[in-house]
Amino acid sequence: MNVIIDKDIPFIKGVLEKVAVDVKYLSYNEINAEIVSDADALIIRTRTKCNKNLLEKSKVKFIATATIGYDHIDTEYCNRNNIKWTNAPGCNALSVTQYMSSVFCYLSKKKNIDLRNKTIGIVGVGNVGTRIAKLAQSFGMKVLLNDPPRARNEGKTDFVSLTEIAVKADIISFHPLLHLDGEDKSYHLADEAFFQLLKKRPIIINASRGEVIKTEALKEAMEKNLVSDVVLDCWENEPVIDTELLKKVTIATPHIAGYSTDGKANATMQSVRALSRFFNLGIDNWQPAELPQGINNNFERKNDCDFLLKTYSIEEDMRKLIESPVDFEKLRSTYPVRREPKAYKNKLPEGFEEKFPIFFEE
């Protein structure tokens, strides 16, 4: 068996060499039709577009993407051609939750925003959005949920329309999967018409896919003072992002919300296990060895936000991106160790685990 692996997927090097004939580790821009022609399996990230152009002349039977999203995979083409594909649902949901906790703390401390009793509208309530809802409640916020597929399947009792969120929410946070068309199209979900509906000059947050928000519409909304603050981890046209927009937003990061070391390890584990099950490799229970430590444990326990901003310094990621937006992809591929709060159980502020149980769920 020949396997091609994105070289920036962590903890995987050396795992498959004992069960495969040939394993190649390549950067995403080295993975092309010629390279994959003899491959049986691919383990990739979002930058590799798995479509007819890449796969038509290959013998690929299996694709694992070490990500939640799978919009970079032409699933219809794969299904028609008997190519099994898998993603890693929920792998970095707690990582994004950690990111969002630092966003909330930053807005509270730096912008003097009292989050208690604010209304947050969460658009997309899957593995990530569900956890963000629980996090927001821990911060004392009221929560509105929008998820049309779930509303159809589960009944509309717990869900509201996007229009209701636009009218009632003080904060609107986007977490849907990217669908380019169809009944649940999320491409440019936040467009000119959406921003015209806003009533409360909300904070806009995007930690899903850049294409969920139409860049020009967002810039126009900012110019018209329809929104207050903007938090962007995801951008249209990554890695070549809009530098004019970069200068205007409150928080800007290089698509790393889900990049905790814990989340990456989960994604790698799910991908390896799926590959093993498909090819009967006998490593169905593989998991990474002990994860590296993050920041030094020798820091003072203060309040919850001081602790959260210590375990993840969102300002450091902001600084790096603002200083060098051309290094967007490099900032992602060389991202440092970031452990989630549960890695610091001996340093938790008093009552933290009871207030934020979401960080300790299995």
Contiguous helical run count: 15
Rg estimate, integer Å: 21 Å
Uncertain stretches of 5 or more adjacent residues: none
The description of the largest β-sheet is: 6 strands, parallel
Order of helices and strands: EEHEHEHEHEHEHHEHEHEHEHHHHH
Helix-and-strand structural type: alpha/beta
What spatial form do the alpha-carbon principal axes imply? globular
Helix content: 25-40%
Question: Strand-residue fraction?
Answer: 5-15%
Tell me the total number of β-strands: 11
Separation, N- and C-terminal Cα atoms: 34 Å
What's the arrangement of strands in the largest beta sheet?
7-6-8-9-10-11
The averaged pLDDT comes out at 95
Structural commentary:
The protein is an alpha/beta fold. Helix content is 35%, strand content 12%. It contains 15 helices and 11 strands. The protein has helices at 33-36, 52-55, 75-80, 93-110, 127-138, 148-154, 162-168, 192-197, 215-223, 243-248, 261-279, 304-311, 314-323, 328-333, 352-355; strands at residues 2-6, 22-26, 41-44, 62-65, 84-86, 119-123, 142-146, 171-174, 203-206, 230-232, 251-252. The chain has a 6-stranded parallel sheet, with helices on both faces. Strand 8, helix 8 (192-197) and strand 9 (203-206) form a beta-alpha-beta unit. The chain is globular, with a radius of gyration of 21 Å. The model has no long low-confidence stretch (mean pLDDT 95).
